[in-house]
Design brief:
Radius of gyration: 19 Å
Strand content: under 5%
Largest sheet: none
Helix content: over 70%
Number of domains: 1
Structural class: mainly alpha
Shape: globular
Number of helices: 8
Number of strands: 0
């Protein structure tokens, strides 16, 4: 009687050889680079052809709670599917969905930044890049496992969404210190995600790892822009 065939399972991150882990890391950051380039080119295209103004006007005239809710749903689905499906094209499809969602969500913020704080976008991009590079360097040099940040980040993100919801419903002003706090949350998220890239992710989930990193970098960029806008 023939036995059923079970495909080989990907090795967990901690069991990978040095060469296999290096390959995984290279694929992860290459994918992240192209995701960031895709986001950048999408924004340039939207602002160049005039669609950004239309999108910003439409989104500003809509309930921001609905916009955030739809974005959270898209992000959740994209991240979950990319971490679970075995099909590589499906994983890349979820990455494209994630990049597209962030690109649309950023339009009103970038449009406002261009109007009230010229130069803020470029400065925020440099600060975000430097911050990401520094935090990534810390994670790789120390090789510390930052998995303990998971619970802290979960509570911080829930609290942040509660505060954002209250601000939208009751007209509260969150102010500069909220943006500073969220920059800290984004930085901790980058450390946590990078630690997982180094220690935890199985070898076939580099797209999912890139999605996690992209979301954290985008969150950092968002609140760094807010800080530059508040300064001006």
């Amino acid at each position: 009687m023939s036995q059923s065939y079970s495909p080989p399972q990907p090795m967990p991150g901690f069991a990978l050889s040095v060469d296999a882990r290096a390959t995984f890391i290279r694929r992860t950051y290459t994918t992240l680079f192209f995701a960031v380039m895709g986001f950048t080119m999408t924004e340039i295209w939207l602002f160049t052809n005039g669609m950004a103004e239309q999108i910003a006007t439409a989104m500003m005239g809509t309930s921001w709670l609905l916009v955030l809710g739809a974005f959270m749903l898209v992000s959740y689905v994209a991240t979950r599917v990319a971490h679970q499906v075995e099909s590589l094209p499906a994983q890349y499809g979820m990455l494209a969905l994630m990049v597209g969602a962030w690109s649309i969500l950023f339009v009103p913020l970038l449009y406002a930044a261009e109007s009230v704080a010229p130069g803020a976008i470029q400065n925020a991009a440099w600060v975000t890049g430097a911050g990401f590079a520094g935090l990534t360097g810390i994670a790789f040099v120390t090789r510390k496992n930052f998995s303990f940040l998971r619970g802290i980040l979960g509570w911080a993100i829930v609290l942040a969404f509660v505060l954002i919801g209250c601000s939208l419903v009751f007209g509260l002003q969150l102010g500069t210190w909220f943006s500073v706090g969220m920059v800290g949350v984004a930085g901790a998220s980058i450390l946590y995600d990078t630690s997982n890239v180094i220690h935890e992710y199985p070898e076939d989930r580099y797209v999912g790892a890139a999605i996690q990193l992209f979301g954290s970098v985008a969150l950092l960029f968002w609140y760094v822009i807010q800080l530059f806008m508040s300064r001006d």
